[in-house]
Amino acid sequence: MRPGQQDGDWRALWADYGPKLLLFARQQTPELGAAEDVVQEAFVRYWKSRQKSPELTPTLLFTLVKRIATDYARKSAARRWREAEAQALNEGEAYFEDSFAERDRRELVEATLQALPESQREVLVLKIWGDLTFDEIGKTLDLSPNTAASRYRYALNQLRGLLAPAVS
Amino acid sequence: MNEPLDELEAELKRWQPLAPGPALEARIAARVDATEARGARVLGLPRWFWWAPVGMAAALGAMALVWLPPRQESGPATGSAETREAKAAPGAPSRRPSGYRPVRIADYLLDARDDGIIYTSATTPFRKIRYQVLSTSQWRDEADNETVQVLVPRENTVLIPMNVY
Questions:
Q1: How many CB pairs under 8 A join A and B?
Q2: B7-57 per-position pLDDT tens digit
Q3: Whole-model pTM?
Q4: Cβ of A14 and B28 within 8 Å?
Q5: Does A18 touch chain B (CB under 8 A)?
Q6: Could you tell me if A36 lies within 8 Å of chain B, comparing CB atoms?
């Protein structure tokens, strides 16, 4: 946790967790606007709660994103997106930052991520980009840590075949 | 179980998630700042302070009941008030609600809650704010010095149009 986060500076927390939360939310609901709504609600709820309970860790943010996205999908047309097959991202709605030279590679990484089953993809996102441990992932997704680790390994194995040439 | 990153993990981690746009940050800022401003305005004082009007109103009501002067009855005080009124001597002024005059009317803001931004079919988003108010009114009958206090809790919902840039 950054120093600024201790003294009530929500912007420091946002700078640190905003990109991670948005990436995770987009695994729950691929539509960018809906994902932003989910992240906004989760962040504001967490921040309000932390004013009363400073001991709450930011890991809770991911749990809130998951719950709110689930509620959102139940209540709105986002269900269609959730139940749909993985769809190509629209132009300008990339997952990751890139330079012009790396655009092809970035699109390949995003396409392979989308090809993963959602259950594996969300574990991978929380582990790689959320910096969560398997224990924390388990609590966030209501899984055992062993199940989270297994899904993570499955995801990596699937990605390895597609991304290995560039990695090596 | 949490081993060091291998080559593929390192490759994936190299990609930085896209930062949320400034519009999303502005939306969060509006809600967080509104909450903190409300906290400074409403919750900055001890919570009992905001319940003080309720307590004062209740105390006033109790005092009014205790300090009511005894009624001048010609006979023994038996039966209900309606019965006593019916037994009153002919020609005596009857106590009707019309004898009461308002002496004090006040609204006390107990709490204000920001429910965030809502989107309607219109293009302009609205900020939804709920105010919890205690409306009090005090009525007095000068003829027999009776006081009645009415407390009505209310909740007002206000939609404030927002400018979007």
A1: 86
A2: 888 888 888 898 888 888 888 888 887 776 655 544 445 555 556 666 677
A3: 0.56
A4: yes
A5: yes
A6: yes
